[in-house]
């Protein structure tokens, strides 16, 4: 077998995509190699036309001398609409070895121009139907085909949401198509291969048309509508083996009828009357019991805004069985799914005709054990089913989704609920999982699970704030603080590509950014919320090297920064207008949601950050003049920030945790001031008994600010804080997702508030980013996107965790990093994918140590460079799997001599002397040298030495603590 192999071919992030409208799609692949240190020297990419003939290809790059293996742009002859193409790749590595050709991959185009749409938008005819109701409607058409079908494709969408049926079969597992976009500017359509569903002779198409996001979104009793009427658009192309083609279109020949879905909205749920089912409505030869209506052609609806599907579809990705049935003190029959999930219940029942079963969904129980609906606000989250009475019936809602762990069931036949009759179907955008994290603390592992469940529940086509109450909106602030964690967890390239395009589409003429995208609320331009316009495209670029998206979004990014620049009297400060501030900060004034950090400080800090990212984007895109302009602007904003918010003695003027965090994380302080600001931040944490007071703005960066500035142990103690407020508090209370408030559920079982209290709100899950990068130590080198250059530097300087490991499936392949401690022995393991390199920093190690303890030495194969530094051993490694073993002085230093229990009894100078004296002795056999004539009482006399074991030191520290 060839030791070099090309695998995992993708086109526009997807495997064998169907229905692209991109004239120049991009290709990516990964390499597998048995040799360490493998790099791609060059590649050959071949694209075949509709005939899939690689001997006479449409485009052959020839050998291209480059290590680029992601985002390769097609540059061959113009692609044709509705055409399937094949491609394959082979590569050569730096030693000259060549791979075989990869397996063949495909992509297929849809409509490359809007003018190719021949179909009409159609809607149920108003005569005889209440088209303004919340019911769903049926649309159908019969047609004929020949028996020599070669292929068939449907291109379809809806003003609303739809399901598509052909000859009695549902065409796709996709849910809530066409997804939610800024419909007036960008409206997705889907492509389906229906070749296998067609039959010779008579056929029938059916569309089930619902309301979805098209009408009725918003909150606080808003009811936004993109249009007055729901409508459908469909074009079926049937190609025959002799080259002939027939096209079936939505036009005035279709028919319409009410459906069994008599009510369906996103917030309130769905009512289904099975007695109204029309069996066979989507099959040829259907004869209706009642006459069907015609349809109206919607001349007012255009097709110029139509775009092929960009995001991954929404689907059922997992099923969950209830774990318990019980009757509450209030007498309600309730099922516990065991997990706060988002999706729907599929119910099976055998009941007399007309039996009405009502299922209401909720996240938690109250302190008395009754199901709690208060935090849903007006949202009903109710599924109602009226039985047909013809044996076993099965139903799940079509056009809504719920956020829940518990369901209350009313009207189900019998005295008790049969658990086996109910299944939870988890619904979200079907993204590929790419990130894992695990450590020695099971509470943290549960937190990691909660983070991922929170993302799954809130990534239902758009990044929503919550999935249960009357909101479920794409809040920009939530998205930008969580995006890095999100992209580590799941492949989110298509997801965020779609969403930031909607952001640009809904951006206001003056550059301001609405609070939610798609915008159905109004209001705009808060700091940290509108900055999503810059942060999100930049983060997608960092993870995937998507330079095209940066170029596409550059105007939006620039407009946002210029909008800020135009606010107020000082172009370098943002100190005017409304801002959400440090939303839900715990240092807020009573009866306020906005934390104590001045909004002007937050606004100016984000102004500096977005300007810096815009400058860096301009450099990447070769916009030299813009890069210089925004470099100067960024320096002036930083200067203004320092003059306005940093005192002459080097303190942050606002004594809040968030103010210090932003100053550190956005590089708003120089090196002289940084040390003091970091120490002050640490003091603010310690003085609060290792609890945070940060809100939505400060929390995502808090632990980074500490770990990056020498206070990693403090950051870990915050992570492991089980009392309120802390990440593990919700875990200790049984949470299975991330909460909106640190105390959404209080220790006494009462609730924070009915007003705004989601138990599935992913923002504070942004801690996951720090867990991956700092605790497990897997990070990217920011100078090169997409993990082409990897940085591995685990910060294990704490006794509280004994191992951590993580992995991330990058565009180049799977990266793994992990460490564990066994006594004095430290082991760091890693896997680096081919065509990448990594800088590995082993804190506290020396190159000599690596050769003594059984792991890889500094001169092992695959290691290109190695040196000793003040931080420890630093190695440059190529692809492959490595294991480094050593004894770590830094770990001991942090855990013992800098432990606060010891510091209370020693001056800083004495502690430093202990460290200097102790470190050289760490590897001198099984005993350690510790300062003091009496280790329990006198720790300041440098001349008298006591030789004690590590176990004895633990005992000393325990006694000191008493």
TrEMBL record:
Organism, scientific name: Cohnella boryungensis
Gene3D superfamilies (alphabetical): 1.50.10.10, Galactose-binding domain-like, Immunoglobulins, Maltose phosphorylase, domain 3
Lineage of origin: Bacteria, Bacillati, Bacillota, Bacilli, Bacillales
Keyword Lyase: no
Record's keyword annotation contains Hydrolase: yes
Pfam families reported in the protein's UniProt record: Bac_rhamnosid (PF05592), Bac_rhamnosid6H (PF17389), Bac_rhamnosid_C (PF17390), Bac_rhamnosid_N (PF08531), Ig_Rha78A_N (PF25788)
Domain Alpha-L-rhamnosidase six-hairpin glycosidase: from-to ranges: 434-775
Segments forming domain Bacterial alpha-L-rhamnosidase N-terminal: 148-318
Record domain Alpha-L-rhamnosidase C-terminal: where: 782-848
Domain (Alpha-L-rhamnosidase concanavalin-like): residue spans on this chain: 329-428
Protein name: alpha-L-rhamnosidase
Entry EC no(s): 3.2.1.40
Entry GO MF terms: hydrolase activity
Reactions this protein catalyses: Hydrolysis of terminal non-reducing alpha-L-rhamnose residues in alpha-L-rhamnosides
Keywords: Hydrolase
């Amino acid at each position: 077998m060839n030791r070099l192999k090309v695998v995992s071919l993708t086109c526009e992030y997807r495997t064998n995509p169907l229905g692209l409208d991109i004239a120049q799609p991009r290709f990516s692949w990964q390499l597998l190699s048995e040799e360490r240190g493998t790099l791609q020297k060059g590649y050959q990419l071949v694209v075949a036309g509709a005939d899939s003939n690689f001997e006479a290809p449409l485009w052959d790059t020839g050998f291209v001398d480059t290590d680029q293996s992601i985002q390769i742009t097609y540059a061959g002859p113009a692609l044709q609409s509705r055409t399937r193409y094949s491609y394959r790749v082979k590569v050569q590595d730096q030693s000259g070895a060549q791979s075989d050709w990869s397996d063949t991959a495909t992509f297929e185009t849809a409509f490359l121009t809007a003018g190719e749409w021949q179909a009409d938008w159609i809607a149920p005819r108003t005569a005889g139907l209440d088209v303004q109701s919340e019911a769903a409607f049926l649309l159908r058409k019969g047609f004929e085909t020949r028996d020599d079908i070669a292929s068939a494709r449907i291109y379809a969408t809806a003003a609303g949401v739809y399901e598509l049926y052909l000859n009695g079969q549902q065409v796709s597992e996709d849910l809530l198509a066409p997804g939610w976009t800024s419909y007036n500017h960008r409206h997705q359509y889907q492509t389906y291969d229906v070749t296998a569903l067609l039959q010779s002779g008579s056929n029938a198409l059916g569309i089930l048309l619902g309301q979805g996001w098209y009408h009725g979104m918003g909150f606080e009793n808003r009811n936004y509508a993109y249009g007055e009427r729901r409508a459908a658009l469909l074009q079926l192309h049937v190609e025959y083996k002799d080259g002939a083609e027939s096209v079936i279109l939505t036009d005035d020949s279709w028919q319409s009828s009410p459906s069994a879905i008599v009510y369906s909205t996103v917030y309130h749920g769905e009512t289904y009357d099975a007695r109204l089912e029309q069996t066979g409505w989507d099959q040829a030869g259907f004869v209706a019991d009642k006459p069907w209506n015609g349809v109206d052609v919607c001349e007012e609806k255009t097709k110029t805004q139509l775009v092929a599907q960009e995001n991954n579809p929404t689907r059922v990705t997992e099923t969950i069985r209830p774990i318990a049935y019980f009757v509450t003190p209030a007498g309600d029959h309730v099922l516990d799914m065991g997990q706060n999930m988002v999706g729907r219940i599929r119910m099976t029942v055998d009941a007399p005709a007309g039996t009405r079963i009502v299922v209401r969904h909720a996240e938690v129980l109250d302190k008395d054990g009754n199901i709690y609906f208060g935090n849903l606000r007006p949202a009903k989250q109710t599924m109602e089913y009226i039985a047909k009475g013809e044996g076993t019936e099965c139903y799940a809602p079509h056009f809504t989704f719920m956020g829940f762990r518990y369901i209350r069931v009313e009207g189900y036949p019998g005295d008790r609920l049969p658990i086996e009759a109910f299944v939870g179907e988890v619904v979200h955008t079907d993204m590929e999982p790419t990130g894992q994290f695990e450590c020695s603390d099971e509470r943290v592992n549960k937190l990691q699970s909660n983070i991922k469940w929170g993302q799954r529940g809130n990534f239902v086509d758009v990044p929503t704030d919550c999935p249960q109450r009357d909101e479920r909106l794409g809040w920009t602030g939530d998205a930008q603080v969580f995006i890095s964690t999100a992209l580590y967890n799941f492949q989110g390239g298509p997801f965020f590509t779609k969403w930031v395009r909607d952001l640009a589409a809904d951006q206001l003429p003056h550059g301001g950014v609405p609070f939610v995208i798609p915008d159905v609320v109004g209001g705009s331009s808060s700091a940290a919320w509108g900055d999503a316009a810059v942060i999100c495209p930049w983060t997608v670029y960092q993870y995937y090297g998507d330079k095209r998206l940066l170029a596409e979004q550059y105007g939006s990014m620039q407009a946002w920064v210029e909008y800020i620049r135009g606010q107020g009297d000082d172009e370098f400060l943002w100190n005017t207008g409304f801002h959400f501030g440090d939303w839900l900060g715990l240092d807020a004034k009573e009866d306020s949601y906005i934390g104590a950090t001045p909004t002007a400080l937050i606004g100016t800090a984000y102004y500096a950050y977005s300007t810096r990212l815009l400058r860096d984007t301009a450099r990447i895109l070769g916009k030299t003049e813009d890069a210089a302009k925004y470099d100067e602007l960024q320096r002036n904003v930083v200067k203004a920030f320092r003059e306005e918010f940093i005192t002459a003695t080097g303190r942050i003027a606002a004594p809040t945790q968030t103010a210090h965090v932003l100053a550190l994380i956005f590089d708003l302080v120089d090196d002289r001031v940084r040390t003091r600001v970091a120490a002050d931040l640490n003091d603010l944490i310690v003085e609060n008994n290792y609890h945070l007071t940060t809100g939505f703005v400060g929390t995502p960066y808090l632990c980074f600010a500490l770990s990056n500035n020498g206070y990693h142990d403090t950051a870990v103690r915050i992570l492991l804080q089980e009392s309120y407020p802390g990440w593990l508090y919700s875990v200790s209370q049984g949470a299975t997702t991330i909460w909106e408030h640190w105390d959404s559920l209080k220790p006494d079982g009462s609730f924070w508030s009915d007003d705004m209290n989601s138990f599935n709100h992913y923002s504070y899950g942004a801690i996951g980013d720090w867990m991956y990068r700092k605790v497990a130590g897997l990070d990217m080198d920011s100078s090169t996107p997409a993990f082409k250059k990897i940085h591995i530097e685990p910060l294990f300087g704490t006794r509280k965790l004994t191992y951590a490991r993580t992995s991330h499936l990058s565009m180049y392949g799977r990266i793994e990093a992990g460490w564990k401690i066994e006594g004095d022995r430290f082991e760091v393991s890693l896997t680096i994918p081919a065509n990448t390199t990594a800088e590995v920093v082993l804190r506290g190690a020396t190159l000599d140590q690596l050769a003594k303890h059984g792991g890889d030495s500094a001169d092992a194969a695959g290691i290109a460079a190695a040196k000793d530094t003040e931080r420890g051993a630093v190695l440059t490694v190529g692809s492959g799997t490595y294991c480094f073993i050593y004894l770590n002085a830094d770990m001991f230093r942090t855990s013992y001599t800098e432990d606060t229990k010891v510091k209370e009894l020693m001056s800083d100078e004495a502690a430093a002397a202990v460290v200097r004296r102790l470190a050289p002795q760490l590897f001198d056999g099984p005993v350690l040298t510790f300062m003091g004539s009496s280790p329990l009482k006198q720790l300041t006399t440098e001349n008298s030495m006591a030789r004690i074991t590590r176990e004895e030191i633990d005992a000393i520290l325990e006694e000191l603590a008493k």
